[in-house]
Design brief:
Elements: H1 5-12, H2 26-36, E1 48-53, H3 56-73, H4 80-89, E2 102-109, H5 114-131, E3 135-138, H6 140-146, H7 149-154, E4 161-170
Antiparallel strand pairs: 1-2, 2-4, 3-4
Helix pairs in contact: 2-5, 3-6
The protein binds flavin mononucleotide.
The site of flavin mononucleotide has 10 residues, from strand 3 and helix 6.
Length: 192
């Protein structure tokens, strides 16, 4: 069967959490941002706006705010993944952005659809990055503090907008991580 570049891109993207000490080139950033704007969008609103951060000091500050906020938000008992995350969050060396060279927040004017539009825009950025050899990881932990009014102002996000996604980018250190096992799709019902 002929190679299918779209399926290959979808399957080769991995959550990357370790990066080369090398900036993401402006040309790659431009390509990823353009890819974001080709995402589907309800009633063609195209609500996505982007905040780009390459400053390590800024990322460290946001990480330091996110860690206690997340610890407070997570339950004291839970499954292994939650308990593992809680343990990482108490480690002073753990940075929720993993020292990535680039952090992008995607925000949009609040609407019932903006979360979907902005999420798909962020996914397009990740896939476009992957096609250029740029690794990425969605950082849910990064959004926890981003909607605080003071932080929003710092990120240039208007009051009537909400931050929906935080994604880190950079060149993977030591190659792409191994894919976790993917479960088969669960079809609840099929009505023909
Ligand atoms: C909504 C969402 C939030 C996530 N938040 C984090 C996060 O805060 N920190 C992190 O290291 N990875 C985070 N991830 C990445 C997932 O852990 C990763 O996608 C998952 O383990 C599957 O691995 P894969 O992307 O390589 O297939 C998040 C992914 C999603 C979709």
């Amino acid at each position: 069967m002929a190679a299918n570049p779209i399926l290959e891109a979808i399957k080769s993207r991995r959550a990357v959490r370790s990066f080369e000490d090398k900036p993401v080139p402006e040309s790659a950033i431009k390509t990823m941002l353009e890819a974001a704007t080709w995402a589907p969008t309800a009633i063609n609103m195209q609500p996505w706006k982007f905040t780009l951060i390459t400053s390590k000091a800024e990322m460290n500050g946001l990480s330091d705010l996110a860690k206690p906020a997340l610890l407070r938000a997570l339950p004291d008992v839970g499954d292994e993944s939650i308990m593992g995350l809680k343990q990482r969050l108490t480690n002073p060396k753990y940075n929720v952005f993993y020292g990535a060279p680039l952090l992008v927040f995607v925000s949009g004017a609040k609407s019932p659809f903006a979360v979907n539009d902005c999420t798909m825009a962020a996914q397009n950025m990740m896939l476009a990055g992957c096609s250029l050899g740029v690794g990425s990881c969605w950082i849910g932990s990064g959004v926890v503090v981003a909607n605080d009014p003071k932080i929003k102002a710092e990120l240039g996000v208007p009051d009537d907008h909400e931050v929906y996604a935080a994604v880190i980018f950079g060149y993977p250190k030591g190659g792409m991580p191994k894919a976790p096992q993917k479960r088969a799709p669960v079809i609840l019902k099929r009505i023909d």
